[in-house]
Amino acid sequence: MGPYVICHMLTSIDGKVTGRFLSRTECGPAEARYYQINRDLPAQAYACGRVTMEESFTGGWYPDLAPFSGMSPQRTDYVADRSARRYAVAFDRRGRLGWKGPRILDEDPGYGDAHIVQVLCEEGPTDAYLAYLRSVGVSYLFAGKEDLDLELALNKLGTLFSIRTLLLEGGSVINGAFLRAGLVDELSLVQTPAVAEAADKPLFDQSRIMDFTLRAAEASEDGVLWLRYGKGEKT
């Protein structure tokens, strides 16, 4: 059985999750609240798509795979650490992320030292890339042949790594994929009191109609809202 998924995101009033509004001084209180909640929520893992992982952690770095040419590791799930304090799950179907080690390097304890788990498609990464991941101690699993099978990925995360609760933290493409698959159990939205620009990306890319129930709303003196929504009836 897969983990309970909480989509935890920092948004503008109009539901955008990228753009210049995030780097403005006025967004500081909302950003601080978002990261504090990330640290406080009882989750064993957080997950992001490839682009968000590049922007937040790898900086676009990619390894030289030449030393691994000709290697043919078994194309089966690889578990390097099944007892980590926290996991960083990277949805990267073709294997384009470059990791220099098995753990996230970040000063924020909500992110730093998390063991990296790469979620790949069967026909995505090269053998050399898989050999490289093994050499640096990064775990990986396969979910789907050409496109990601998110339900399968969640089931494997639960079975192989004992992940019971996962924070889904964008971007909008992976958020939208989870929503369309009906795999978002809860929304945790920290809203800054600002409207974003038209070209900024929404909370869910290619979304569809789905109902949620407001379970809690917390307002602070600086205008920041923390909204929590769940599926089904309020309990």
Series of secondary-structure elements, N-terminal to C-terminal = EHEHEEHEHEHEEE
Beta-strand residue percentage: 15-25%
Strand order of the largest sheet: 5-4-3-2-6-1-7-9-8
Distance between the ends: 23 Å
Low-confidence stretches: none
Number of strands: 9
* Total discrete domains: 2
What is Rg? Answer: 18 Å
Q: Given the C-alpha coordinates, what overall shape results?
A: globular
Major sheet summary line: 9 strands, mixed
| Category by helix and strand content | alpha/beta
Compute the average pLDDT.
Answer: 96
Helix share bin = 10-25%
Pick out its properties.
9-stranded mixed β-sheet, 235 residues, alpha/beta, Dihydrofolate Reductase, subunit A, 5 helices, globular
Helices and strands in order, then pairings?
Layout: E1 4-11, H1 28-40, E2 45-49, H2 50-58, E3 87-91, E4 115-120, H3 127-136, E5 139-142, H4 150-161, E6 165-168, H5 172-180, E7 186-191, E8 213-219, E9 225-230
Parallel strand pairs: 1-6, 1-7, 2-3, 2-6, 3-4, 4-5
Antiparallel strand pairs: 7-9, 8-9
Describe the structure in your own words.
The protein is built from five helices and nine strands, in the order βαβαββαβαβαβββ. The chain is α/β, with parallel strands linked by helices. The protein has two domains: 1-44 and 165-235, 3-Layer(aba) Sandwich (Dihydrofolate Reductase, subunit A); 47-163, no CATH class. β2, α2 (50-58) and β3 (87-91) form a beta-alpha-beta unit. 38% of the residues are buried.
